[in-house]
Amino acid sequence: MSKVINSIWNEFKYGGHLLSVGAACIVYAAAIILKINVYFEFLFVIYLGMQLTYSYNRYKELDSDIQTNPERSNYIIKYSKFIPIIISVEALLIIYILISSHKDSVILFSLALVLFGLSYTFVFKYLTRYILGFKNIFVSISWTLLLAFLVIYSSAKFSIAFLI
User: Fold this and answer.
1) What are φ and ψ of residue 32, in 5° steps?
2) In this model, does residue 164 exceed pLDDT 70?
3) HEC states along 54-86?
4) pLDDT score of 70 more than 90
5) Using N-to-C axis directions, what is the helix angle for 70-77 and 2-14, rounded to 10°?
6) What is the average pLDDT value for the chain, to the nearest integer?
7) Which residues are CB-neighbours of 33 under 8 A, at least 6 positions away?
8) What is the pLDDT of residues 97-119, one digit of tens each?
């Protein structure tokens, strides 16, 4: 039994689920503070978008990550051949959920967020060599955009409460 629990914990920790659930929780907390009703589907899209972004990054940078985080990398290597399939399923689920919302602005903003997150790996990663703290800035902007996504998804108005 402890082996099963350990396997689940390792997947949660090394598979990026902890970060993805954390992102959904932050958005949910903001929704509570801003008195915005959100549905599970929206939070699931947040989770899936973050999961897709982190999975893609870890898959593409597996060779270099093994030097800085060998424990996580060795865990991911075990199922690395399935990661493209997992990423595809995550993307299809996001698209399906968003299309069912019938809001063009939500679909476009969500896809832009995912592309922005993915762009770190294949466009902006090299800037970390030249700009001190660039990764931290990029991640902060990405997570902040999740809160803008909350406002766009709920058709709420941007307010001073949102900015705070």
Assistant:
1) -65, -50
2) no
3) HHHHHHHCHHHHHHHCHHHHHHHHCCHHHHHHH
4) no
5) 110
6) 88
7) 161
8) 988 876 788 888 888 999 998 99
**Cα–Cα distance between 111 and 97 in angstroms, integer?**
12
Token digits for 101? 């919302």
- Concatenated DSSP letters for the chain? -HHHHHHHHHHHHHTSHHHHHHHHHHHHHHHHHTT----HHHHHHHHHHHHHHHHHHHHHTHHHHHHH-HHHHHHHHTTGGGHHHHHHHHHHHHHHHHHHHT-HHHHHHHHHHHHHHHHIIIIIGGGGGTSTTHHHHHHHHHHHHHHHHHHHHHTPPP-HHHH-
Residues in contact with 91: Cβ distance below 8 Å, sequence separation at least 6, in sequence order: 52, 114
> Tell me, what amino acid is at 14?
Y
| Cα(61)–Cα(57) distance, integer angstroms | 6
Q: Measure CA of the first residue to CA of the last residue in the chain; give whole Å.
A: 45
pLDDT tens by residue, 31-65: 998 889 998 999 999 999 999 999 999 888 888 88
Encoded amino acid at 56, one letter: Y
